[in-house]
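Please check this chain.
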Amino acid sequence: MKSIKITLPLLILLVIISINACSPAGAVPKTAEVTELPISATVGEMEFEATDTPAHEEGEQGHKIPVIFSHDGAPDDIAAMLYISKHPDIEVIGVVNSYGEQDPQASSKAWATFIHEILNLNAIPFAVGAEKPLDPAGYEFPAGWRAGANGFWSLELPVSTPVVDPREGYELIVDLINGSPEKVTLLVTGAQTDMALALEQDPQIKDNIERIVIMGGAFHVKGNLGGNAGAASNDVAEWNIFVDATAADQVFNSSVPLTIMPLDGSENFWITREMCDQLAGSDDPGAQLLAQQWENQFERWGGDFLLWDILAAVAVTNPEYFTWENGNVDVITEIGSQHGQTIVLDNTNENNQFAVDNMTESLKTHILDIYLER
């Protein structure tokens, strides 16, 4: 007999027919207790196969994912912030200006204006994070890069008096997690400094964290320091991890579930002129500002350019666009040529996942759909 694929509606119908056939005339059968079928179960000669379901379905029952965004002011953080502000399944509950490509205090007014005035997220608390890394090595991004981030990449913003939360970045993270009625997702696209400080300040917050989504690391590929890390001779580390390996090590070993977007899964995502042109045609202030930023990037790089943080943002809502590996991961913190390198210890931890590939063209369509609210 051939293997017959039974869908759930057909299975329910067969159960009802079977119950009615065995019940006295006119009797109303009791509600059956439904048990979960295994992925593939064989009953007699009939094979039941469960169909694949995505890890997250957009708009499911109107549920929104509470997200705290910790970023370091890079150009792709602007893209990530626009994405999470527009995604219908995300509720941004707080933003932290973190250590990394920017000096958190220097760019705070511009970022507060961007969030409150351009994106109209007036009720979202915005705080300034730690100015220095936990790592005693004290590594920094190149000074020229930090100057650009501190000036919000020379983008035009409206004149305003932005409101900055008086709490330290890690304090805001702790308070928001403890005050949330449901588990919170952390999106961290800069150094892990404030996340590590929050876990250090109140270790119990891990009980109310759904997962930490990170842009950082390089597991099976080379790093991206490219000789720009001063005296550090290192071709294995990625910038976000390198500048505070101590903090990253603490977060990686916190037992909180991790979704990591390393260079492995993001180093092939190029922004094209066609994408920029679609944004430029929008009437939305956020889309227009990002289009302006992308124009600047085209001029700087002389053509298409890479973007990383936006893919970590997409992983919060739509992990089906990526290929994942699982396992226990760690960070090398010793000073030397491997400082900040991310490594896979084993493949036994299914709570941790890191991307090794992506569906590039589908991602581009999805991101533009969110930006343009199509």
